[in-house]
Specification:
CATH class of the largest domain: Mainly Alpha
CATH architecture of the largest domain: Up-down Bundle
Strand content: 15-25%
CATH superfamily of the largest domain: Calcium-transporting ATPase, transmembrane domain
Oligomer: single chain
Number of helices: 34
CATH topology of the largest domain: Calcium-transporting ATPase, transmembrane domain
Number of domains: 4
Helix content: 40-55%
Largest sheet: 8 strands, mixed
Number of strands: 25
Structural class: alpha+beta
């Protein structure tokens, strides 16, 4: 079998049978073993491997930095003056910093690329005659792919079956209207893709209907692959947060360079030696400018994305991480997200009586009892409305019940699974029913349509079975029958009563096709008019226990949860009360209400409405826009094709990983792999953790740089020698920042973050609290270092020993300050050390490295140090503890201020 086997004809010119024959396939698809062989032969169904950035290029890019240029200039100046030792030290530091910077960048890029693979598109394919779901990359020529509304076409396919199939092909042809597809061969020559109506192509989107297609081309051999062949490589776009940090670092750099110039000018005016002043100014610029901060931001974002993935939230667009921390409103679907999506039919109404269905879940064990009877299963009378309601639920159905490892699961829609289980509990035989009521045609369910219908052959009759919303079927019924024949009042009463109990209600109807349509095999909407209603089935979908807690947690965090559902208003209110949405007296707004008001009126109402019922995807879009108009930061969930506009309009579009269509996932910023609302709450928390950890790194780096600057300025004002030589300043920057800043990015976060209101998206990195903390820490470290340095000079120590004491004092201060930086509000004594082992490791490495240059004779020349006595070292350690005391006092002040705000 070869892909180029078709020479005289194109794929669209062949019949489906000929296509299958050419590719050695069959309508039931390939075997798993054959698919594996073909995958090895033709390779994965990808548009080309992403080219990772070369490690050498990343390393060389480390030298494209103004700070490096300054250091290289300093190394050249010292070498020209014969100070080769200083030149070597500077060059060694440049090399080590470049290696560490390269490692950080490569790690961040690898993390992001690995996380991108978590959201690989899936495809439904026939293997061994059974429908299974595989990664789209595993598709091979000859596979038979199953398509449904909302799917993104995973390869180039020759259609072999299609039902109301329409595909949006704007990505390839520019045609904005969906194209109706068919399966008949086309004998014309030279048709463009837009005219090949029996083909569907990779990257296009199914917007309606169902179909099956034979894979005729994969990967680079597809039409899209040929277009993309020369457009390879990956660009990791910076998020707004990363761009803000880049601007922040540049502005800070300009400020620091200005201060260094000022330092040089003051020292020159005081008659200090020019070379030492120049080298000190250069070293100061290196110490003060947090050149590693942008890389740390990237790593922190990558860590946040990884943690969210562990909470079943896959981030598709990186800026969503930071936006999640600002979210003020979460608009969530009900079914499967706020509820468990484990449907069970609990009650049936046949137009006269209520029946109770025993059992729960998908295990078809249980009895059906009359509503006013306490004992004994009900014997269902043949030909009754009850039997017909159960039969319609069983056969007007696209899902299957699967038993695996002793337990039952539903393959398809959970609601349809519940209808199958109810029929089996009543004693209906699925295989027998399918034989006696042969399905001829189907109108698949679409959200806009609101119902599903099937056409069946039963003996010499043709019957239409239909299920859907009660209002929809009552409308079809009333088109030809009287309200009495439809039993409209009773059905509405029963539907409302079930809704009050929090049950989801489906109406089921049927009709015999009139004689003049008996030869028509294709089902259309006209044939559903005048159906007779067999009854209602009421299904329970209990709220998720974890969703109740999540709604409560989000409320404490100042985030409002809004429920949007297509269910009846009464059902929506019942579920919202169980979940705690909308307070004690939630108000509901229906889709019909939304239709009757203007956007301005809706904008006023969204402030007080937390439950929206009987809404369509277009209503979701209007709701999202009005929240945004009010200044809210909106997260919106969705799973259908028509949800895509609302997902795009929201600040955070959230698609369902299990039930969501490819279109919804493509439009979303985040995908929930478990369709669970609690995962949204977890992602919001992690979004806050990311921003908080970035602030912690900023606090630590800028506070340390400020301390060094203030110490040097203090010695200038006191008229004593500078406390550090240039090499020591560079060493301080290296030993206190090379690893500790990265380790702070791994902080696990604090539960307190869910007790504060969302931050404004316009809020800067340096909040008032952060600025105050930087000043507190910087001033404390500077005063302590000046005290130890001044004491050493007064006690007769040599300048070299005094400078060793000053450098060691800063190192010890920073070891305690990095512990302080683990939380902006919690006491360092409450956090504990076990939460971030990487930080402890970084501290130990830094301490060992500094002790080595102080006490190992072969290394002392590096930074011109001299060994210190144990008493001196102990005194420095006690002095450095003062930064813990001052920061603890500031944290206590902050906690009391927050408590005062909460209680006021």
């Amino acid at each position: 079998m070869h892909l180029d086997a078709v020479k005289e004809k194109k794929w669209y010119q062949l019949s489906g049978e000929e296509g299958l024959k050419q590719l050695g396939s069959a309508p039931e698809g390939l075997s798993s073993s054959e698919a594996a062989l073909r995958l090895e032969k033709y390779g994965p169904n990808k548009l080309g491997d992403e080219q990772a950035t070369s490690p050498l290029r990343v390393f060389l890019n480390q030298f494209k930095n103004p700070l490096i240029y300054i250091l290289l200039l300093a190394a050249a100046v010292t070498a020209s003056l014969g100070l080769f030792k200083d030149s070597v030290v500077i060059l060694v530091v440049i090399l080590i910093n470049s290696i560490i910077g390269s490692w950080q960048e490569l790690r961040a890029e690898q993390s992001l690329r690995a996380l991108q693979k978590l959201s690989v598109p899936r495809a439904r394919v026939l293997r061994n005659g059974e429908e299974v779901e595989v990664d789209s990359a595993a598709l091979v020529p000859g596979d038979v792919v199953v398509l449904a509304s909302g799917d993104k076409v995973p390869a180039d396919l020759r259609l072999i079956a299609a039902k109301e199939l329409r595909v949006e092909e704007a990505t390839l042809t520019g045609e904005s209207l969906p194209v109706t597809k068919k399966t008949d061969p086309i004998h014309e020559e030279g048709l463009t893709q837009g005219d090949q109506t029996n083909m569907v192509f990779m990257g296009t989107v199914v917007v309606n209907g169902r179909g099956r297609g034979l894979v005729v081309a994969t990967g680079a051999h597809t039409v899209l692959g040929q277009i993309a062949e020369n457009v390879r490589g990956v660009s990791l776009t910076k998020t707004p947060l990363q761009e803000r940090f880049d601007r922040f670092a540049k502005r800070l750099g300009l400020v620091v360079l200005g201060l260094c110039v000022l330092l040089f000018a003051v020292g020159f005016a005081l008659g200090m030696e020019k070379l030492e002043l120049f080298m000190t100014a250069v070293a100061m610029s290196v110490a003060m400018i947090p050149e590693g901060l942008p890389v740390v931001v990237t790593i922190t974002l990558a860590i946040g994305v990884s943690r969210m993935a562990k909470r079943n939230a896959i981030i598709r667009k990186l800026h969503a991480v930071e936006t999640l921390g600002c979210t003020t409103v979460i608009c969530s679907d009900k079914t499967g997200t706020l509820t468990r999506n484990e449907m069970t039919v609990k009650a049936i109404y046949d137009g006269h009586d209520d029946y109770e269905v025993m059992g729960s879940g998908y295990d078809p064990v249980g009895e059906i009892r009359h509503g006013d009877m306490d004992a004994g299963p009900l014997e269902i009378r043949p030909g009754s409305n009850l039997e017909m309601a159960l039969r319609i639920g069983l056969l007007c159905n696209e899902s299957t019940l699967v038993k695996q490892d002793g337990s039952y699961t539903v393959k398809g829609d959970p609601t349809e699974g519940a209808l199958i289980v109810a029929a089996l509990k009543a004693g209906l035989d699925l295989e027998k029913e399918r034989r006696e009521y042969t399905q001829l045609s189907i109108i698949p369910f679409e959200s806009d349509r609101g119902y599903m219908a099937t056409l069946h052959q039963h003996g010499g009759k043709r019957l239409v079975f239909i299920k859907g919303a009660p209002e929809k079927l009552l409308h079809f019924c009333s088109l030809e029958l009287s309200p009495e024949e439809c039993r409209m009042p009773d059905l509405l009463r029963a539907s409302e009563e079930y809704g009050r109990r929090g049950l989801r209600v489906l109406a089921l109807g049927w009709k015999e096709v009139p004689p003049h349509l008996t030869q028509k095999k294709e089902l259309d909407e006209e044939m559903t008019h005048g159906v007779m209603l067999a009854g209602l089935q009421a299904i329970i979908d209990p709220p998720r226990v974890e969703a109740v807690q999540a709604v409560s947690d989000l409320s404490q965090a100042g985030i409002r949860t809004v429920m949007i559902t297509g269910d009846h208003a009464i059902t929506a209110l019942a579920i919202s009360e169980r979940l705690g949405i909308g307070g004690r007296d939630p108000h509901v707004l229906t889709g019909r209400d939304i239709e009757e008001i203007t956007d301005e009126q809706l904008r006023e109402k969204v402030a007080g409405i937390s439950v929206y019922a009987r809404v369509s995807p277009t209503h979701k879009l209007r709701i999202a826009r009005q929240f945004i108009q009010r200044g809210e930061i909106v997260a919106m969930t969705g799973d259908g094709v028509n949800d895509a506009p609302a997902l795009k309009a929201a600040h955070i579009g959230i698609a369902m990983g299990k039930t969501g269509t490819d279109v919804a996932k493509e439009a979303a910023h985040m995908v929930l792999t478990d369709d669970n609302f609690a995962s949204i709450a977890g992602a919001v928390y992690e979004g806050r953790v990311v921003f908080e950890n970035i602030r912690k790194v900023t606090l630590y780096l800028i506070g340390g740089g400020l301390a060094i600057l203030l110490t040097i300025l203090g010695t200038l004002l006191l008229g004593i020698p500078l406390p550090f030589n240039p090499t020591q300043i560079i060493w301080l920057n290296f030993v206190t920042s090379a690893l500790q800043d990265i380790s702070l990015a791994f902080e696990p976060g604090e539960r307190e973050l869910l007790k504060v209101p969302p931050r404004s998206p316009d809020e800067g990195i340096l909040s008032n609290t952060l600025i105050r903390r930087i000043l507190v820490a910087g001033v404390t470290i500077a005063l302590g270092t000046l005290a130890s340095y001044g004491w050493a000079l007064r006690s007769g120590s040599s300048l070299e020993e005094a400078r060793t004491i000053a450098v060691t004092t800063v190192v010890f201060f920073q070891l305690f300050q990095v512990l302080n930086s683990r939380s902006l509000s919690l006491s360092v004594f409450k956090i504990g050390l076990a939460g971030n082992p990487l930080l402890i490791l970084a501290m130990v490495v830094a301490l060992v490295a500094h002790m080595a240059v102080v006490y190992v004779p072969q290394l002392e020349w590096l930074v011109r140090t001299t060994p210190l006595s144990a008493d001196t070292l102990s005194a420095i350690l006690l002095l450095a503890l003062s930064v813990v005391l001052t920061v603890e006092m500031d944290k206590l002040f902050l906690r009391r201020a927050r408590l005062s705000i909460r209680t006021s």
